[in-house]
Design goal:
Layout lengths: L1 E4 L5 H8 L4 E5 L2 H9 L3 E4 L16 E4 L13 H4 L1 H12 L5 H5 L12 H10 L6 E6 L4 H13 L3 E8 L10 E8 L11 E2 L13 E2 L3 H5 L32 H7 L15 H15 L9 H4 L1 E6 L8 E3 L17 E6 L16 E2 L2 H7 L12 H10 L3 H12 L13
Parallel strand pairs: 1-2, 1-4, 2-3, 4-5, 8-9
Antiparallel strand pairs: 5-7, 6-7, 10-11, 10-12, 12-13
Length: about 425
């Protein structure tokens, strides 16, 4: 079996399915387990730190580990950096067969920090029976020093090991998500996969097969660059379950409207700062409803809005236009909400200078999942907040496939990860 620690909603699991393999995932979060189960992935709901390794002994060919990143992530308080010496100590002790986790845990500023040492407990026990054959681990970039410690231990056990930082965009993921990766194998030389994409397309030459340009959000979502698309939404509750700052009605996006064949690039009346809300209520709402559109909806064709994705609500948020990959998607609390934001693409004119700029529109779980390279119909379980948390913490399946394919002897077909039509 392939043992998947901290399996989450199935990023690694979906990659394995596409490559013709399966994993047994250990995961604690109820909704991530429900998502994995709905996706047809074998799942044990358990605390990875408490589960006995012996039940897997003699059966594990590969081990995957993506420990929770909240303690280390730029999106959180990063107390994992404060706890780093304790985590290094735990890894060293576990690699020597000493379990000091309980004592070290009492000294940790964030109880989740020590979870990054858990893979070593499994590796030490499995190594006693010559397992696993290969190891793949993933975390946020700040965990790289810890992966280097793992690498030193694994080399001492006869593994070939590579660890470093990879950018998911270099492998066709429409997101510049940088991650610390560890690859280890007992039977082959461990080395990173060859990038298939780059920020600027590189033609084929004597030195290599060339690389395609990074995949943009517009391509991934099926929003043609010439359409200059934009989400059209109304209220329906945000990721945390709270209200959205839009009129009542069902929440819709351009991509969903296209699927139903109802989207058309027609002008929509916007609320005017000169005329006020009363004018919009009398004219805009009536005309929008006649056109079958929600009140205060927006189209780029109408007034030349350019749309970008803002990664969170913080001052230093990454903002990327649709023609580029997204920044790293992370969720968890309201400050980490991803939103579509608009700006005018042409100078104000007599007809447009009074138009209100569209308010930020929250990204949908489906859109976020696509930007993580999950299928459009992936069965996310839970409410919006629970779905967004799963998506932000998952490894992109396309990146996972590049990392796993060599160990499985499988050929990766990028067409298997075609995103939105």
């Amino acid at each position: 079996m392939v043992l998947d620690l901290f399996a989450g909603p199935g990023g690694w699991g979906h990659a394995l399915t596409v490559l013709g393999a399966r994993d047994v995932g250990l995961e604690w979060d109820e909704w991530a387990c429900k998502t994995r189960t709905a996706a047809g992935q074998l799942t044990i709901r358990t605390d990875v730190a408490a589960y006995p390794v012996g039940v897997f002994s003699g059966r594990v060919i590969g081990l995957i580990a993506s420990p929770p990143c909240q303690a280390w992530s730029m999106a959180g308080k990063r107390l994992g950096l404060v706890d780093q010496p304790l985590v290094h100590q735990a890894v060293a002790d576990l690699a020597a067969g000493r379990d000091t986790r309980e004592r070290l845990l009492t000294a940790c500023a964030d109880a989740r920090s020590l979870l990054a040492a858990e893979p070593m407990r499994y590796l030490y026990a499995l190594n006693a029976v010559g397992e696993p054959e290969w190891v793949v681990m993933e975390e946020v970039p700040d965990v790289l020093p810890l992966w280097k410690q793992y690498a030193a231990v694994l080399r001492g056990w006869g593994f070939s090991v590579w660890c470093g930082i990879l950018n998911a965009a270099d492998f066709g993921v429409p997101q510049t998500r940088r991650r610390a990766i560890l690859l280890a194998s007992r039977i082959r030389t461990a080395q990173p996969p060859t990038p298939t994409h780059s920020q600027v397309a590189e033609p084929e030459s004597l030195f290599g097969p060339g690389r395609a340009r990074w995949v943009s959000m517009a391509e991934a979502l099926g929003w043609g660059a010439t359409d200059r698309p934009v989400p059209t939404v109304c209220a329906g509750g945000g990721p945390g379950g709270g209200p959205e700052p839009f009129p009542s009605g069902s929440r819709k996006t351009l991509s969903e409207a296209r699927e139903r064949g109802t989207w058309m690039p027609r002008p929509v009346i916007l609320q005017s700062r000169r005329e006020g809300a009363g004018w919009a209520a009398r004219h805009g709402t009536r005309q929008n409803r006649a056109a079958g559109l929600p009140a205060t909806a927006f189209t780029a064709q109408a007034h030349g809005w350019s749309w970008s994705l803002r990664s969170n609500n913080q001052a230093n948020a990454t903002v990327r236009p649709l023609s580029e990959p997204a920044g790293t998607l992370f969720f968890g609390h309201r400050a980490n909400e991803c939103t579509w934001v608009a700006e005018a693409t042409s100078p104000p004119t007599k007809d447009t200078d009074a138009l209100a700029v569209p308010e930020p529109i929250r990204i949908t779980a489906r859109e976020a999942g696509l930007l993580q390279t999950f299928p459009a119909d992936y069965p996310w379980a839970g409410n919006k907040g629970q779905q967004f948390s799963q998506i932000g913490n998952a490894v992109p399946p396309l990146l996972a496939s590049h990392l796993l394919a060599p160990h499985l002897g499988a050929r990766l077909n990028p067409d298997d990860f075609t995103l939105a039509a």
